Amino acid sequence: MRKGTRAMTDIRGDAAADPRRRPTIHDVARLAGVSTSTVSRVLDPRVPPSRSPAAARVRSAADSLGYTPHSIAASLRRQGTETIGVLVPRLTDTVMAITYEEVARACQARGYFAMVATTGDRPESERAAADSLLRRRVDGLVLSTARTGDPFLAELRERGTPHTLVLRTDGHSPSSLGDDELGGYLAARHLLDLGHRDVACVAGPAHTSSAAGRRAGYLRALAERGITPRPEWVIGSEFSMEAGEEAARALLDGDARPTAVFAVNDNTAVGVMSTALRRGLDVPGDLSIVGYNDIPLADRLPLPLTTMRVPFRDIAADAVDLLLSPPGEGEESVRVRPPTLIPRASTAPPRGPAD
Q1: What is the pTM of this model?
Q2: Number of structural domains the chain divides into
Q3: Residue 266 in contact with residue 295, Cβ under 8 Å?
Q4: I need a surface site. Which of 115, 142, 170, 243 has the fewest CB within 10 A?
Q5: Domain HTH lacI-type spans what residues (predicted)?
């Protein structure tokens, strides 16, 4: 093997040794045999394309390594666009649609335009959407797509890409969210205060900090009353009506049936309620249900839903403020807003034997 070929293979090997490691501008420069400034200039879409041999090597190296140029913080400072990229899992989810609208409102108040991209809550789509927005030179990102242990957020921090997380957090990036643990605690305590002891939880997806916090609050409230829930009564799910229906079937078909359910999302709670009513159960007489978020549908249902109200406007405004006015060293980079319990007709004391 020729020496040059071996060197190119070694560089590719360095970039591919860890599949989670994304190739950098330095990898491209080494493979092409040029400086990083040359790589930056050749791959900058604002610069007319060069036909030089060096430029051809840079493009070939970038393609070979799978490198995509990013608008890092330095380039953002050089040429701001007064545009913020917003990543949400999907806009068919009412919570995410509300979040985007409130982020857009907060951006507009600061003289910025919000551009949205959806990811389907898939990590590979999140990367692609973020890269696409950064290539359009947005001034920063607001992400409602954070997943526990997601290496992509660490990459954004390492690259110096301005970003904040909203509704979810990874515990490291600047974040604006509701106090999910407190909300889960208050929701479960409401059911306990009504006299329920057999309280199940439709706990949401494990990869989101919001669901994990609400589940932890639910467990804390039960533990304070000396109650350990049956393992089969704590059910992981997606944030959807269909997931709520599936979870309700599992709960209602079990050997023992709970008298109350805390669903960590309103859509999921609606799915639980739908299944219970179709089976002829009385809500709240046979089954009390609490949701989370207080979406507009919650108080417009034929049986209005007890839920936890999340201050979306305040959370979105905090997220934009953290992005555009980053906290200094030693300043708090996570802002948390408390939720509020909204009791409605879907909860009541459990029926006694004579009821």
Answers
A1: 0.77
A2: 3
A3: yes
A4: 115
A5: 23-78
